[in-house]
Structure formats: structure tokens, C-alpha cells
Amino acid sequence: MNMKKTRFKNKPIILTLAVVLILQVFGIILFFFYSKAKSEGEGLSKIVEQSSKSQQDYSDGEDELSQQTEHESDNGNSSGSDSENDSGQSETPNEQQAINFDDPSANCPEVDLGLPPGPPGYKIDSADWAAYPTKISPVTKDPNDLLVLVNKKFQLPQDYEPEDLTDLGVTEVRGSSGKSGRQVIVDQLRSLGQAAKDDGIDLAVKSGYRSYDTQIATYNYWVSVEDGNESEADKYSARPGHSQHQLGTTIDFTTNECGDCIGDNFTGTKAQAWLSQNAWRYGFALSYPIEGEFYTGYLPESWHYRFIGVDNAACWKDSGLVLDSWLFQVGQ
Ligand SMILES: [Zn+2]
């Protein structure tokens, strides 16, 4: 056996070495391909992971938003923590949209404060300041944009109706039930109502969203009140397509102090004073201010507020411009 082994000793060694060598070569090749495949696989899975993560972030945001909305709708009382008068520790819409109240203009767009009087987009004859321009144009932005300018020159499409209309009753503001407005105003309207309540101010919603067709009826009603004199109605009532109420972001407020009045009796009430001081903090801008008719084409309306977003409202307020003039400059 030993002899035999010895005799064939070299042959198996050579064979073994050859096999080992071949296996090594195969091994190296296999390892090379494996590594390559692995790194490509990892790269791919990383991309998949990243994309699903960003999708996750997106849906998380949506979930948070809907949870927040649900939570707040279910429990109106808890929305007290949204108010700035409250030290609310939880994250609230107000805190999320925190603005620098010391210097609200820090991130604001530049605007020209030296504008000549006149509504944006057309010239008026001061003797006939409420007249519509001869040429009416469609609005220049998406009507869903919070900064779209709607005035006597720029008209909303007849078929425009916001897709996110909701019953404003969820805001718990008195009178809001049965009135509709865009979802985008809900949180801030709720906060505004709560803050007013905390300050002992009675505030109610008198009017919210109005469709194009409703505005036809509204305008015609006021024309009939003016015995068919459209020029008189034009001083305070918008023609169809020209009303900010069609945006779903505009609210007419009232208060029990004036018996839930509509119109000028609201001026001078505590609620009116409170709104003029505080509404902008919740993203609501006074559209038709005192002595603003030469910029807006409308008589003052102390009760009519349009939501433009919290940050935007801070910038608008800081500019000191009439809302339409500010929108014309920053929003077009
Ligand atoms: Zn109004």
C-alpha cells in the first residue's frame, strides 16, 4: 500500500493542485460576479427604499393632517389650545405656521408702497368709482390659489367651485353650521373663533361660500333693492364671477351686539374692533377697508374677511396696502 501510494504520489498531487487551481479561478470569478450583483442589488434596494420612504413621508403628512382634522373636529373644546392666548404645548396649526411677529416683513415679497389710487388692473373715473371696466379678464391665477386676485376687472370662471368645500360647522364658530367654505380655512377659522371667545367677544359667521349662481341671485336682489339701479348695487354687491365669496375662503362675520346684523351696523361693535386687530394673525385679511373704495371699487365692508394664509396675511398687514393692491403685486 505504501509503495503504491508512493508510486502514484505525484500524480494525485498534481491533479489535486490542478483541481484547487481551477476551483480558485472559478471562485474568484464567482466572487467577482457575486460582489457586482450584490452592490447593484444594494443600490437598487436603496433607491426603492428611498422612494418608498419619501412616499411614506408624504402619506405620513396626510395622515397627520387628517388625524389632526379629525381630532379637532371631534373635540371642539380641545381646539382652545390652538389659540395664541393659550400656552398650548401640543403642536398646533398656529405653531406649525409660526411667523416672526417681531419682524413679519423678514420673508415678505417686496411691494411698491407708492401706488397711485385705483383698483389694480383698470383705471377708474373718481366720479364713478364703482363702475366695472369695459374689458373684463379671467383671473390670472388658479382660482384655488389663496392669492388669486378677484375684483371688478378679474373674473372667476362661471363653473369654478372649490373641490374642498366643507361645512364650516366643524369650526364651532357660532352660525357656521350650514355655511360652507374651503377646508383650507377650517383650522384657522376655528382658532380665530376660539381666540375671540377667550377674549369675551361674540363672533358669528353670517356668510361663507357663494356659488356663481347664488351670486346671480344675490346681485339681482340688491339691484332690486336699488330699484333697478345697477350703479348703486355695484358699490357694495359683486356681479357673478367677481365675488370673493365664490373662492370659498371669504367670510362675512357678525355678532350678537348688533343682533347678528349684516352690513354697516357691524361697524363699531366689539367684534369688529377685535377682528380689525386680530384677524390677520389667523390669515384673514380685511378686503374692503375704510376709504378703500378707490382701490377696490367697493364701499367699506368691516365684516368681510378673506383668508390668504397666515404668513401671507402677516406680509399684507405689514405692507399697509389695500388687499387687492397687495395681491396684484405679489400674486400675479
Ligand atoms: Zn362679504
Short description, anyone?
This protein has helices at 2-7, 10-74, 93-96, 186-198, 212-225, 230-233, 270-278, 293-296, 310-319, 323-331, and strands at 137-138, 154-155, 165-167, 180-182, 204-207, 250-254, 284-288, 301-307. With 332 residues, it is of the alpha+beta class.
Provide the list of bound ligands, each named once: zinc ion
What is the structural class? Answer: alpha+beta
Mind telling me the C-alpha Rg? 33 Å
Q: Give the overall average pLDDT.
A: 78
Which blocks of ≥5 consecutive residues have pLDDT under 50? 1-8, 32-99
Overall description:
- The protein is 42% helix and 9% strand.
- The N and C termini lie far apart (101 Å).
- The longest helix has 65 residues.
- By secondary structure, it is of the alpha+beta class.
- The N terminus is likely disordered.
- The protein is globular.
- The strands form three sheets. It has a four-stranded antiparallel sheet with strand order 5-6-8-7. Strands 1-2 form a two-stranded parallel ribbon.
- It has two domains: 67 residues; 224 residues, Muramoyl-pentapeptide Carboxypeptidase, domain 2, CATH 3.30.1380.10.
- The structure holds zinc ion (ZN).
- Zinc ion (ZN) binds next to strand 6.
